[in-house]
From TrEMBL:
Keywords linked to the UniProt accession: Disulfide bond, Glycoprotein, Signal
Taxonomy, superkingdom: Eukaryota
Source organism (scientific name): Clitoria ternatea (Butterfly pea)
A single GO cellular-component term on record: plasma membrane
Protein name: Phytocyanin domain-containing protein
Length: 176
C-alpha cells in the first residue's frame, strides 16, 4: 500500500509540473521575424513587419536565414542605429540558419546581421510589453500557417506523452 501511495504522489507531482509548463507555453507566441520562415534577409522591410506585431514577455522570435551568409546579433540601440556589429550583447546565431530567441524582459530589443548586411536592411527593433491578459491557447503570429500551429500543439502533446512514458518506465523499476 505504501508503494501505491508513493507512486500516486509522484504522478500527481509530475502532472502538476506538466500542467504548469503547458500553461506557460500557452501564454507565449512564436513570431517568425519578417513574417515567414525564411525572411531574415536583405531587402525585407523588417521595420514595417515589426510595427504590425505585438510582442509580449516570454514570446519567442524565430530567425530563418541562409546560414552561410547571415547572422543574428543582439546589440544596443547605438550599435543598431549605426549598424555596428562589434561589441554585441549576444550572438543568437547557432549555425543552422533557424535560431530562436525568447523575449524575457519588457524593453526594446535590437537585432542586426553582421558582415555589413545591416546596411541592406537586416536589422529590427522589437518593443516588448508586459502581458496584457493571459492567453487561453497558443497564439501563433500572422505568419504561421495552420500546419505550423498544429505542430506547436503536437509538440505539447508529445511532451505529455514523454512524461507518461517516463513514469511508466520508472514505475516498473520499483521492486516490491
Amino acid at each position: 500500500m505504501e508503494i501505491f501511495s508513493f507512486r500516486k504522489m509522484v504522478m500527481m507531482m509530475i502532472m502538476s509540473m506538466m500542467m504548469m509548463m503547458l500553461g506557460n507555453m500557452a501564454k507565449c507566441e512564436l513570431h517568425y521575424v519578417g513574417g515567414n520562415k525564411i525572411s531574415w534577409a536583405p531587402n525585407v522591410n523588417l521595420t514595417e513587419w515589426s510595427t504590425h506585431e505585438h510582442f509580449h514577455l516570454d514570446d519567442w522570435l524565430y530567425f530563418g536565414y541562409d546560414r552561410h551568409l547571415y547572422s543574428v546579433l543582439e546589440v544596443n540601440k547605438t550599435n543598431y542605429e549605426s549598424c555596428r556589429d562589434t561589441e554585441f550583447i549576444k550572438n543568437i546565431t547557432r549555425g543552422g540558419g533557424r535560431d530562436v530567441f525568447q523575449l524575457t524582459e519588457a524593453k526594446t530589443y535590437y537585432f542586426l546581421s553582421g558582415g555589413g548586411f545591416c546596411w541592406h536592411g537586416m536589422k529590427v527593433a522589437i518593443h516588448v510589453t508586459e502581458n496584457s491578459a493571459p492567453a487561453t491557447a497558443p497564439a501563433p503570429s500572422k505568419g504561421v500557417s495552420p500546419s505550423d500551429a498544429a505542430g506547436i500543439q503536437f509538440n505539447q502533446g508529445l511532451l505529455v506523452l514523454i512524461f507518461v512514458l517516463m513514469w511508466g518506465i520508472s514505475s516498473n523499476n520499483i521492486s516490491y
